[in-house]
User: Fold this.
Amino acid sequence: MKYSEKFRVNPGSRVRLDRIDAAFKDKHEDQASALVELEKYTQQLRELQYLLYAEGKQSLLIILQAMDAGGKDGTINHVLGNMNPQGSRVYGFKVPSAEEAAHDFLWRIHLAAPQRGQVAIFNRSHYEDVLVSRVHGLVSKKVWSKRYEQINDFEKNLADNGTHILKFFLHISPDEQLRRFKQRIDDPARHWKISESDYKERKYWDDYSKAFEDALSRCSTAHAPWYVIPANHKWFRNLAVSQIVVEALESLKMTFPQPSVDIGEIKEKYHQAEEEAAARNNGKVKGKGGKKGKK
Ligand code: AMP
Ligand code: MG
Assistant:
């Protein structure tokens, strides 16, 4: 199944999250059955990212948004962690610093946009400014309601300048969130992830859902589509995200750059260097023998 088609929010359509099954897992029974496919995409992802880096002409921006415990960290670790760190960077967006807050909301985002040849992964993003800011009234409706258009214009500018944009909403159910909160309590290695705000924010589930539905509906565009990824099953989420990223990278029709040197000439230079090295090595062997003989 082509997940890009199945999960893409078609521009102009209205998303209803309660009608999308967060536990969807396609034809797969469990993780084991998806593993072969996942490994194939993982390998392709590595190769394509290497090509993106080598070509150095275009860039990829991956935006991850979700409710708390929705799996943003896990997606970065399992799917995108397979990329070469030399050509990829992850940015986590927290409550804006004083300096960030003193600028327009897109300022810090633009600074983190990927250079040509690079992949940037956003763990949260400018969408927080129409999510948490809207749900908690951090700014007035007059302010946040203008942001959808500002976001579309901003993303269009990036896209027109060679940045391919993919936006993933990792969709979990409220029950799954609670199950993950329980896991965090039960596993001491996950205690550090627990935050008071998890429980506070959970009470705003419906408000967040509405805010997400608006963001997904109003900001899914041809140049920067949103994908709603069923994410109750972590392994299915990883499979779907990897397939979509691979397909997007393939569509960029990248090629290795032409060598900056004449390969024929370089081959001659190589052979010359090889002969010189052989001559030097022969000399060394004789030289050593000679020294030994003197002792
Ligand atoms: P975490 O990703 O769990 O480390 O949490 C980061 C926190 O920063 C979340 O509570 C976000 O809602 C918050 N945050 C991120 N961006 C913004 C923003 N633009 N305005 C207000 N809060 C934000
Ligand atoms: Mg958190």
Remarks:
- The radius of gyration is 25 Å.
